[in-house]
Amino acid sequence: MSKISVKNDTLAKILDRYDKDKGQLISILQDVQAEYNYLPREAVEFVSSQLDVPLSQVYSVATFFKAFSLKPRGRHTVHVCMGTACHVRGAAQILQQMQNEMKISCGDTTEDGKFTLESVACVGACALGPLVVVDGEYAGQMTVNKVKPLLEKYD
Amino acid sequence: MVTLKIDGREITADSGKTVLEAARENNIYIPTLCVNEAVAAYGACRLCMVEVTRGNRKRLVASCLYEVAEGLVVDTQTERVVNIRRMVMELLLARCPNSSEVIDMARNLGVDKSRFQPENQDNSCVLCALCTRVCREVVGKSAISLVSRGTDRQVALPFCDDSDACIACGSCVYVCPTNAIKMEDRGDVRIITWPSSAHEFKMKKCASCGSHFAPEKQIAFMMAKSGLEAEKFELCMNCRP
Q: For a 10 Å CB count at each end of chain A, is N or C smaller?
């Protein structure tokens, strides 16, 4: 996977949007994540120095929220629902098939940077279970056989 | 000044004080792990739970954070309080099954065994955050913080490897109530071992006797803070005039 270069002027623009306000740390990190799809280490360090917030505290925030990732993420995020309703209809097998197809374990990103695979406790669409959500799009009534065709729709 | 009752005793305390402070001033024992007068109260360990009664309402509060008030009735030894403390102790014991400090404290509260399954036999960190709070509030460096959440939460340097901000003063080691952070001076290096990682820091050599007496970064920090010139920091304690 090609390494993303972090540009300080891109980050400076984001910081200016919030007047370099320490209280807006989470919003700033969200914008940085939107820019790079994850939080590059250099970006976290730059934000810390510009806001004059200790790096340990920025790191603490960045690791606290599930929405932030310090590892590069794929272009598409696949959430496999592991809620009770999906679980009893075989979510574990769906997740296993996903892992086999992508050749990664849950929480990781594929070699080619295409997919990030994650599990989620419940997305509240239990009638559709077992359910997989790709980039916010719901794919219901999943079966092991439907996994490969679903993934092939994305590039 | 307000008047309150703790365990049936009438007590006066300055308003703004916490129930824990008022109790301690009057020699009433309330167990704690995360309290240290050097830093602000935090309410992490939940061992200082007491029952407060206001009017007809009884509730459990953390006494280290709850402020005294006129007419407040506090009980530190009711069945409910003792039970909740024992429960907290059992949870801490499951978290730190081999920490002698936690084991001793549990025994004092009548807890010998935890009903919960310990996950990590080697862990002795209770996540009271005294180390990170001291680093931030007393030392002023914020070199370490609590990272991640839930079962992954731990004390760590940024990215678990960036010791830039750390001056190796050892305050975190000193303040830890369960000895979860270790420090060793080995000749010209000081090694600090946090639950997440260990790091080496260079020690300064005494210009006279040649012994290594303090971390170089700590001396640089003290020099900047005091405004004294470098030659004041050349000698170790024993060689100073």
A: C
